[in-house]
Amino acid sequence: xxxxxxxxxxxxxxxxxxxxxxxxxxxxxxNDRMVRHIGVLDPQSxxxxxxxxxxxxxxxxxxxxxxTGEATHSNASLAATALRDAMGNGGYGMEELSLLAAAxxxxxxxxxxxxxxxxxxxxAGPLEIASFQSVCASSMMAAxxxxxxxxxxxxxxxxxxxxEFSSRWFRxxxxxxxxxxxxxxxHRMAAEFLRWTLSDGGGAVLFADRPGARxxxxxxxxxxxxxxxxxxxxxxxxxxxxxxxxxxxxxxxFHPGGPAAAARDGAIMLYQDxxxxxxxxxxxxxxxxxxVDGGRVDPKGVDWLLCHYSAHSLREEIISLLKxxxxxxxxxxxxxxxxxxxxxxxxxxxxxxxxxxxxxxxRPGDKILCIVPESGRAVISFMMLTAL
Length: 388
Prior knowledge:
Layout: E1 16-23, E2 29-30, H1 34-38, H2 43-56, E3 60-61, H3 75-90, E4 99-104, H4 114-122, E5 128-133, H5 138-151, E6 157-164, H6 185-195, E7 201-208, E8 218-227, E9 236-237, H7 258-264, E10 271-272, H8 274-293, E11 304-307, H9 312-325, H10 338-341, H11 348-359, E12 367-374, E13 379-387
Parallel strand pairs: 4-5, 4-6, 11-12
Antiparallel strand pairs: 1-7, 1-8, 2-3, 6-7, 8-13, 9-10, 12-13
Helix pairs in contact: 2-6, 3-4, 8-9
């Protein structure tokens, strides 16, 4: 794969990922203090929480909610703080930035877009902006847009951010309107999994038309992203109760009783369909194997794998599939900070890259494969970097 092909048929210049930054709010929160931040729902919730924590193996995470329920940040300010961190790490002045691509699962407002809010928080001069709303893979959508803009000569320095303020969704007031729905064991588990898995944070990466003055820098070899929404129902969802996923006209905004009635039907809770997720994992691995079979990824030639996943139990499932299909990348090459940084959704990859850089693990010539799957409605994305 040469420099021209990965960006399409047009001649494109080389693109470099030159810095990463992160914003993890507050002190690390251990498992036994989580409910002080997200609140006590009921004893059943805490029993399920202990079970889920054994599966995800997250030991600490960060919340932008204090123990008294006050917000220390907005979603936009988490992204802006991470971006300032990346700019500092790369040795750039804010006046050098010409494009901001901002990703999140849910911004602070329904309208307008998240990138406008991040730019407002950033306080930089006029910028081109783009908002990307999906779930975890929205970060890679933003990264690809920023990288393509640099490759096309539209920007010399472009930023991609990912940020989440997930803990807002996990306060008891988001669950109590739909208490009757939570009597269903399947719905209860679908609602609890993310409450005990997701946390808050922002991450950012910078793309430039030349290597950074500070190390490490990486040449971007290619970025690819595939949606499988034509094959799967929605797997991670908010805005619609779990019993009515088949028709978007059943979403909260169509509810004849208005937003309050939609909340009573469970439309404001965040769900994860764990049964469907297992099927989607197999499809994600299938997309990875297409890259292997096509010669784009050589598992033995990958020096580091930065793969986002929600829980250690899901990592084990992915590894089992890779081993049986011949696509395994040796486990000692896997880098993750999930146990200490938590699962910050669209921020996760950029937060991981920031820690990877700080540890100084990459050596010149190393191939770093980044993978961000998204369970929302089955998206998988890949980015290959070469360390300079």
